[in-house]
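TA notes. Do not distribute before section.
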Amino acid sequence: MPVVSTTKMNARQYMILGEDPPGVRLELVDGEIAVSASPLPRHSYVDRALTALLWVHVESNDLGLVLGDTDTIFGEYDVRRPDIIYFTKQRSHLVEEDEAISGPPDLCIEILSPSSVAVDRKDKFEQYAKGKVRFYWIVDPKNRLIEAFKLIGGKYKLCGSGANNDIVSLLPFPDLEIPLKSIWFAKKK
């Protein structure tokens, strides 16, 4: 009879695995390895365009750090990789150059892919709130929608949104105007 292990992998053990194999993204979810495909062009385009806007704003105003796709420990058995992460300057000491992030970011941004809608809107929504991430943005490239949530009393409350060609300012960046038209994937003619 085969032996099945019911032991959960912890974050420390997961970090020993090293980099992901080509073409997949790994996360640790409740002690089990979750595998997802690499992003498709629409997702990648939005990621790079939004990261560029945020990075320029944060760097030019000396606000902190913008990172992407970095192992972030949310508990003993959970390591997630938000698409975009922001730490304020005051909390940037939580980020070490060669280690997984072990403190909650000030902002996590998830860009929806067809296979990630339920995970990003339910699982990560709850996990990031429990992990005390102050702001959470969900970006839906297919429907050209962005939603910003603020953690209030342990729960996320919608604090801003925009769609299509709107120009939005979302917390925690009230002084940054984001022309949404510039982040949506469109073939160049």
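Switch to the second chain here.
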Amino acid sequence: MLKFAVQSFLATALLTACLLASADQEQKLPKIGVLLGTNPSTAAPYDEAFRGGLRDLGYIDGDNVIIVARYAQGDTTRYPALLHELIALKVDVLFVAARAIFAAKEATSTKAIP
């Protein structure tokens, strides 16, 4: 659990830096795309920890940031399609499950994100 907490802290710190940069560039709400490998009910504790970390930093979903989540339902073959959905929504930051990192790198290295 400590490892997850450290990873969540680091991810939140990185997201904060990206969101601040994004918010300065435009007056739109920054979007965070989240891709998790499980289903919403299994991911609920992690989702709440993530959102709680953002809340602690002043980022509240629907108020000053938009969080868009997609769930692979345990099927890793869904990662590319779900990533393309998030990219099409023009998210500013991607937060992905560890097993989706390589799919995210491939999806974003093709310059699919404007």
